[in-house]
Amino acid sequence: MRRKLVVGNWKMNGNLAQNQRLLEALVHGLKGVGHVDIAVCVPYPYLFQAQHILTGTNIAWGAQNVASHENGAYTGEVSAAMLKEFGASYVIVGHSERSDAYCESSANIADKFAIAKQHGITPIFCVGETLQERESGVMEYAIANQLDAILSVSGGALLDRAVIAYEPVWAIGTNKNATSEQARAAHSFIRERIAAMHPGAAESARIIYGGSVNPRNAAQLLSMSDIDGGLIGRCSLDANDFERICRAACKI
Ligand code: 13P
């Protein structure tokens, strides 16, 4: 049985004082909450703060991007080895907010996925269709394309215990979450696709849902078979909301 995973994606939010209040409230509120893995993915400059406050707690931390190279003349990039030095357990790769705005190619995202794994950091690989793709009936084709780029490059071993986030682009930041049935259908499509290429990895991979998850819809979404957790944007910035979502996941 796969353990549920709830990850906060803070995006480009926070400051030292706010983060401290948020992280301390989460440590306190989520103390002793078991049967669910919990993490927050913070902006790079706050990794040290997250490490300082979260070490020894049941909350892991990570980053929202990683360089696709080991080191060298890549101005502005941050390597997997650097993330590791600050105790990062997770890194988000291929979020649509990055792949769109910064023109990240599938090959580039696949390299980030592989390099994170090589450094013992779990990549959270995001896939998802746009509204136009859904409405024109090519949703599965779009998701399959994104997945195949990783599956063909990374090989089965790298996918073992991977985390895939299904984030329909139209549900991100819109208050229009996918219905639990829409999400379940997409998740089982993703799992079947992985199984077709790497049967061993399909069972261990966790497929989590992201897109307007809140404390009111979390229990229903997270109770669906094949939905192994959530990737939470706005509601991860509020300790009470995030705590309620984590608690919803651990009741299931
Ligand atoms: P929201 O939860 O704010 O819709 O963001 C989802 C997301 O993009 C998580 O990565």
Features:
252 residues, alpha/beta, TIM Barrel, 8-stranded parallel barrel, 11 helices, binds 1,3-dihydroxyacetonephosphate
Structural class: alpha/beta
User: What is the CA–CA distance across the termini?
Assistant: 12 Å
CATH topological fold name: TIM Barrel
CATH homologous superfamily - what is it? Aldolase class I
How is the secondary structure organized here?
Elements: E1 4-9, H1 16-29, E2 36-41, H2 47-54, E3 59-63, H3 80-85, E4 90-93, H4 96-101, H5 106-118, E5 122-127, H6 131-135, H7 139-159, E6 163-166, H8 180-197, H9 199-204, E7 206-210, H10 218-222, E8 229-232, H11 239-251
Parallel strand pairs: 1-2, 1-8, 2-3, 3-4, 4-5, 5-6, 6-7, 7-8
Bound molecules: 1,3-dihydroxyacetonephosphate.
Tell me what the structure shows.
The chain is of the alpha/beta class. It has a single domain (4-250), classed as Aldolase class I (TIM Barrel). It has helices at 16-29, 47-54, 80-85, 96-101, 106-118, 131-135, 139-159, 180-197, 199-204, 218-222, 239-251, and strands at 4-9, 36-41, 59-63, 90-93, 122-127, 163-166, 206-210, 229-232. The protein has an 8-stranded parallel barrel with strand order 1-2-3-4-5-6-7-8, surrounded by 5 helices. Helix 1 (16-29) links the parallel strand 1 (4-9) and strand 2 (36-41). The longest helix is centred in the middle third of the chain and has 21 residues, at 139-159. The relative contact order is 0.16. The model has no long low-confidence stretch (mean pLDDT 94). It binds 1,3-dihydroxyacetonephosphate. 1,3-dihydroxyacetonephosphate is lined by residues 9, 95, 167, 172-173, 210-213, 231-235.
